[in-house]
Every structure is written in structure tokens, then in C-alpha cells.
Design goal:
Elements lengths: L40 H6 L6 E3 L2 E4 L2 E2 L2 H13 L2 H14 L6 E4 L4 H7 L3 H13 L7 E2 L21 E2 L7 E8 L3 H9 L6 E7 L18
Parallel strand pairs: 2-8, 3-8, 4-7, 7-8
Antiparallel strand pairs: 1-2, 5-6
Helix pairs in contact: 2-3, 3-5
Length: 223
């Protein structure tokens, strides 16, 4: 078996898993217990459907709230590059994507964090969704080399990366990210593209994040 990620129970996973296909010993992709399906029954029940949300200038659609097994799947991707977690969440995203979508634009991770964890979660998700839908991935954003990590930081202290555009995108393109919390990152990505992209797909979104409304400040400061 080729080298790949380490499963939650210590079994080495293959480098890639075809859509809807699981090989080797069966275990829950979230908690690691024995299971006949990608998610065990308790973990499947803990995946709470998310509603579409407006965060700033972007409409975000995610299959799940960022809690329970869905949160664990995101963490397995973000910090472990789990192909099985990628497959489960890519299936879920592909099931809710608008058929009129013309391109998938991943929100890139900073170079330092890509190097540290060996994966760019949004790029990996976009590629897997593309494999399922045939919608092309367009790497139209460039992330800075480094920057302050937002994961685990209080919401009020989170700062978005300073993205820059590396190409143009056509109408109908959507941003792709692994999780939406405050919405600052997804809006910074949309802003770097000149406001052309107004929709995003995310594996999960945080409960209660309904909008980041602009204040009465003429400068449009985020609330």
C-alpha cells in the first residue's frame, strides 16, 4: 500500500480515495471506531445541516455546522490530511453545489502553514469536489507567506490573510474553504478578486454566524 495519511486508529491510509470508494479496514472517518460506512451512526447523527449564510458580501453554503463529527472531519483534513475525511466532506459539498457554478476558487492557506501541516485544506477539498462534479479548479488567489494563525484564536482577534489576485475569474465562480467562522477570511478572498465572486462553499460553518454587517461608518468597518 502506498504511503499516505495516518487514520485515527493508526492504520496508514492510501494517498487518495476515489469518490464513494473506501479501501482497507473500515473505521469511522471521524472518531476511528469500527464502522461499515464512512461515518458510524453516532457521528452521522452529530452532523447538523447548516443553513445558507450571508457573511459580509458573500453568500456561504455549507453542508454542516462546525460541530460534532463534521468538525472532527475538518480537523482531520486541516492537521492530518486524511483522504477519508476529504472524501466524506467532498461528497457532502458536491451534493449541495449550484449546478450553474462555473469554477471553484480555493481560499489558499499561508505558505508557512502549508509547509507545517503538509496540506492546503481548501485546495484539497476543491480538487475532490471537482473530481465529483467536473467543475474546474481555478487557483486565482495567492496567500501571503506567513501570518497570524486564526485557528483557536478569539473571534475578535482574528485577522484575515492579505490575499492577492493571481488571475481573473469568470461569472459563476465560487470560493471554496474548509470552515467559515467570522467570515473575515472569505470576505478578504472575495475582496482580493475585486468583488466578482459573491458565493462560497465551505465544508462547515460556525453556528450563529449569520452575517458580518457593515456599520454606519462610511469606511465600512466590519462589526
Amino acid at each position: 500500500m502506498s504511503s499516505g495519511g495516518i487514520s485515527p486508529v493508526g492504520v496508514r491510509e492510501p494517498d487518495s480515495v476515489p469518490p464513494g470508494s473506501y479501501v482497507g479496514p473500515m473505521w469511522c472517518s471521524a472518531c476511528g471506531t469500527a464502522a461499515r460506512e464512512p461515518l458510524c451512526h453516532p457521528c452521522r447523527r452529530s452532523c447538523v445541516p447548516a443553513s445558507d449564510r450571508i457573511v459580509g458580501n458573500v453568500v456561504v453554503r455549507a453542508p454542516y455546522l462546525h460541530e460534532g463529527a463534521a468538525r472532527q472531519l475538518v480537523l482531520h483534513i486541516k492537521y492530518g490530511g486524511s483522504p477519508r475525511a476529504l472524501s466524506v466532506l467532498a461528497d457532502a459539498i458536491a451534493a449541495i453545489i449550484d449546478p450553474s457554478t462555473t469554477a471553484l476558487v480555493p481560499v489558499p492557506r499561508t505558505w508557512v502553514r502549508r509547509w507545517r501541516y503538509g496540506i492546503d485544506p481548501a485546495k484539497a477539498l476543491a480538487r475532490e469536489v471537482s473530481r465529483r462534479t467536473g467543475i474546474p479548479v481555478v487557483p486565482a488567489l495567492r496567500a501571503p507567506v506567513g501570518g497570524r494563525a486564526n485557528a483557536g484564536a478569539p473571534r475578535a482577534q482574528r485577522q484575515p490573510p492579505a490575499f492577492t489576485a493571481r488571475g481573473r475569474v469568470a461569472a459563476g465562480a465560487v470560493l471554496v474553504d474548509d470552515v467559515v467562522t467570522t467570515g473575515r477570511t472569505i470576505n478578504a478572498a472575495a475582496g482580493a478578486l475585486g468583488g466578482v465572486v459573491g458565493s462560497a462553499l465551505s465544508a462547515t460553518s460556525v453556528r450563529g454566524v449569520t452575517s458580518l454587517l457593515r456599520t454606519a461608518d462610511p469606511g465600512g468597518t466590519w462589526t
